[in-house]
Write a structure and sequence with these properties.
Helices cover 45% and strands 15% of the residues. It has 253 residues and is an alpha/beta fold. α1 links the parallel β1 and β2. It comes from Pedobacter panaciterrae.
Length: 253
């Protein structure tokens, strides 16, 4: 199988490396920034390009791993391609590729950073395709890369992406705010890491609602008042504290 990777960001990097590790022939890496394409191309023994007109038209699979707003414009450059074209977005409908002949979605439900290795075999892959044959081809690619593979349509994939924003992006932002609080009071975020790890481990075996702790779930008003006093000089954080505490209390009524 010959593959062209359109993109060189976090998702593209991990997908390209995972495909290469499986012996797939990555023939091109495209990026608007040739330096970024070159870096990934070097690691995957492929050719770097920065012009969409230079894309090899004979590949079997084209992976569009670019920001959501760019998917439609990139797909316009692939109209005459016979190979399978997939995008990797969680929030973008499969219809963004509907002008193409064979198309689908290969969405890895994971957070990626270029510099951090990850075992791709454990990454849940959500797939969707324009027809039964294309789905079979896409399923074979997904099964080669990972064991948890799910057929998820565009509407349900958007819901998954929304839930992932809450579970990952928002939670990580709360870590940032926690770091801001301890730094403000001359404490070290390192002290919170065992707490973070234990919470993450609990939800591997239990429903999150069953392992909730803290003053809000206990309805400990005096403690919550003390916390809010400490946040008087940080009004945005105080508002977030109040909103989340209210949501926890409502959930556990």
């Amino acid at each position: 199988m010959k593959v062209v990777c359109i993109g060189s960001g976090n998702v593209a990097t991990h997908l390209a490396n995972a495909l290469k590790a499986k012996g797939v022939d990555l023939i091109q890496i495209w990026s608007r920034d040739l330096a970024n394409a070159s870096e990934l191309a070097k690691n995957t023994n492929s050719v770097a390009i920065s012009n969409l007109d230079e894309i090899d038209r004979s590949a079997d699979l084209y992976i569009v791993a670019v920001k959501d707003d760019a998917i439609a414009s990139v797909s316009d450059s692939l109209r005459e391609i016979n190979g399978l074209v997939v995008h990797t977005s969680g929030a973008t409908s499969i219809d963004a590729l509907s002008a193409l002949k064979n198309y689908g979605v290969l969405y890895p439900l994971q957070t990626f950073s270029k510099a951090k290795p990850i075992d791709f075999a454990n990454v849940p892959l959500c797939i969707e395709a324009s027809n039964v044959h294309t789905l079979e081809v896409l399923r074979s690619v997904a099964d080669m890369l990972s064991s948890p593979v799910y057929e998820v349509d565009s509407e349900k994939r958007k819901i998954l992406h929304l839930a992932a924003v809450f579970a990952c992006n928002f939670v990580n932002h709360l870590y940032t705010l926690s770091d801001k609080i301890v730094e403000h009071f001359e404490l070290d975020f390192e002290m919170l890491k065992p707490l973070i790890m234990e919470t993450a481990l609990k939800v591997q075996t239990e429903l999150p609602i069953n392992v909730q702790t803290g003053p809000a779930v206990r309805d400990d008003e005096q403690t919550m008042i003390k916390h809010q006093v400490l946040l008087n000089g940080m009004p945005e954080l105080k508002e977030i504290y109040q909103t989340l505490s209210k949501s926890i209390k409502k959930t556990h009524l």
